[in-house]
Amino acid sequence: MANALVFHANLQYAEIPKSEIPKVVEKSYIPTILELIKSEIPFALNITGFSLKYLPKDLITLIKEGVESDLIEITGTAYTHAILPLLPLDRVEAQIMKDRAVKERTFEVKPKAFWLPELAYDPIIPAILRDCGYDEVFVDGEALLFSNHLNSAIKPIKPLYPHLIKAQRGEGFVYWNYLLGLKELKSAIKLVFGGKVTLKAVKEITGIPVWVAVNTAVMLGIGGFPLMNVKKAVKWIKGLDEIILYGTDLEFFGYRDLAGYVLSIQKLRELINELNNEIVLPSRLKHSGRSLYLRTSSWAPDKGLDIWTKDWGNRRLNMLSWELKWEHAFLAENSDARGWEPLAERRLDAFKAIYQAWREGYGKH
């Protein structure tokens, strides 16, 4: 059996102050990547092209050594973690190509797999990815399951583990919601299937499903959350073949806590040993033989885009950034200015970029 790992790194993180960036690199990025390489555990590193300017040269060198040793697979993504389905098509392409150029220059590799920020997808994006040299794209596995019905206005998507989401938000009797949520999570894992899929899209592309339920179980297990531990997480996911075990933020390791729990790479290594499956690079996962349509979606609990569109500040940013065509547009399009719970400084970065672009372009008379 084979599994894979993906670590997503974004130093424009909505909830992390910019002053904390050196601390994030020191406490999370360096020790986690170093430990994975020392342990010879292969993984995909998805870091935004914009974030690379904040990495010390020693870390860049370490990552390049990991790539050369076939332990690290560099993925492409949107340069500033933009929600691609919310952008005009020329800006989608600009985000993709800017990131690709930075990766090729920094790591001397041509990424073949693409990580969609927030796994936000629409059926035209695969065509642009193919045009830009990508063969594979990471997608939300649960959204694939819900894509048999395409109109969410008629049939809204209900989260698979609503009580766990309530517990995470601190709603109601938290422990009771958490207990019910664990049962829902265990049931959701039973819906997981292994392997890549062919996505029916404007241009077909290979999709690599990321299963939030699996990811969550692994995080709860290695984090030592109540009623969870490494052995229980392994018991829940045992037998799942050709899947991604972990596919989310690198910052959760050593820096950013989850309800007071910080993940450790040593515990992840313990889970890998307990599971006793081969760990491979995501590109080496096998194809399931499935060919599926994926609806416009994201990995938000309702699989929609409301998080980045409904708030009035987000609406204003989205409207104004559609008008931009210059370099400043990249910062304006950063999803973490919209975010799940963005800091004011992150949101202001986007508004400032819009104003600067306007003054340098449209605002000139």
From TrEMBL:
One GO MF term: 1,4-alpha-glucan branching enzyme activity
Domain Glycoside hydrolase family 57 N-terminal, by residue range, is 17-284
Alphabetized UniProt keyword annotations: Carbohydrate metabolism
Q: Record's Pfam families?
A: Glyco_hydro_57
One record GO biological process: alpha-glucan biosynthetic process
* Signal sequence, start to end: none
- Name the InterPro entries on file: Branching_enz_MT3115-like, Glyco_hydro/deAcase_b/a-brl, Glyco_hydro_57_N
Q: Which family is this sequence assigned to?
A: Belongs to the glycosyl hydrolase 57 family.
Q: What is this protein called?
A: Glycoside hydrolase family 57 N-terminal domain-containing protein
Q: Which organism is it from?
A: Thermococcus barophilus (strain DSM 11836 / MP)
